[in-house]
# Entry
Amino acid sequence: MKAIYKNYFRKKNLLNPVLEALNHVPIFENLLSSELKEVAKLTHERTYKKNEFIFKKMAPAEGMYVILSGNVQIVDPDSDITITSLKENDFFGELALLDEEPRSASAIAITQSRLIGFFRTDLLTLMERSPELGNKLLLNLSRVLGERLRRTNQELTKI
Amino acid sequence: MNPIQKIYRLLFFIIIGGLAWNILPFLASIIGMLLFSFLFTTIFLPSVDHLERYLKSRIIGVFLILSSVTIMIILFFGAFISNVGFQIKLFTQKIQNDDFTSNLETVASRLKSSLPEFFGNLVPEGDKLILMAKGSLITLFQQILSLVGSAGGFLFISVMVLLFTIILLIEYHDFKRTLVRFIPNKYLEVGLRMIYNIEQQISKYLRGQILAASSVAILSIIGLFILNQLGANITLIIFIGIIAGLANLIPMVGPFFGMIPAILIALMNNIGDEAALYHQLFGAIPSPFFIFDIILMFIIVQQIDNNFITPIVVGESVGLHPMAVMIVLLIGGTLMGPLGMLFAIPTAGVLKVIISEFIFISKNSHLL
# Structure
């Protein structure tokens, strides 16, 4: 019964591109349709021109971005190395949701891109308004970061 | 930027500034209403957000909260007006009583004898005192009548504030998102942090002030109750306590306004009571009609509030130096009277956040 209810509402959500994009992000995994809508209400949709910086290295970090459309590159301006190239439904900058350290790399829009921003202030508001949902997000976030740490460790072992 | 551009920009700001200066008086009342609506929105926002989760409807949550608050305010004012009316009626009956004249004469002569000669000459004779009392009563009634006359305007403002508050509460998060849309990409993250810090500053300050005001109200009621046990015969203690709590919202001068109703009611109720007239504080200090007892009680309440309650519940919510607080209060009072004093501290707190963020932006502009 719950699955039917969930699927019914999930299908409805897919009509909304923001909800659909959030649905693909592991941080927003296992959220009920109503919870995902609550998160979506707090996000900010932004459009970036080609070659526009989304953030620069060492800039104050406030949150993460999910790519709705377009392409983004994460680069290290000091060594001029492209760390990664990201496309639709990819996300970046999630570490800023937890700590207040400056950005460790720059993000630049390679094509005109539409992004969804979810910021630490929004997460804090959510944790105050709806602690249950806030906890779910924190757990997902730790899972994502844990997985990334494990992968880094494996790569280090290979070296 | 070249010098011509600079001149054009300067001219643009001068023209905009001039227009704003001329339009501002017409918009002042609307801005005031919006400020109050924003204040109420900040107070009720957490409860509305909380209720929305359970009711699954924001509109019903807003309606439930605002209607219960409105009913409470109407009940309070209704009870307050009927009780004050009854108090005035009793006092009028007392004045018409023959004993009242002789009582007043006793008060005047006692005051004269207890004061040094220089001050004694300042106390009018009994008949003059009656004229003065009657004169002040007439003024009081006139003021009440003028208040009733302006009730229409007050009602209009209240309804407008209520409507603005309803809209703001329902649409708050959408308004915020719309506001964020205007922030250029470059300043998005800093802008969001600034908005969040301003929200935190205001809500922390308000929450602290409401808690401090409630505790002052409760402590005042307890204090007045104790004084009544000692024979002070003060009526309307709950209303006096609430007024003292509300007056406490205005820092520094508010507490003094808070004690005025208590002293007035003690005077009205005890005039003609021999025991009250010759009452002594701690059996040593003459305190006619318990006036000094009331002042002492309010000072004790203030001390408890300033030293124990406010530091805990308000803490360093605004983080302003006491000297800055005083200057800000003076500026607020000079510009807008008591209302200005009420808004002075949170406005200064918000300005502090904005200035510190602007300093941060100017120092780190190469990173944005």
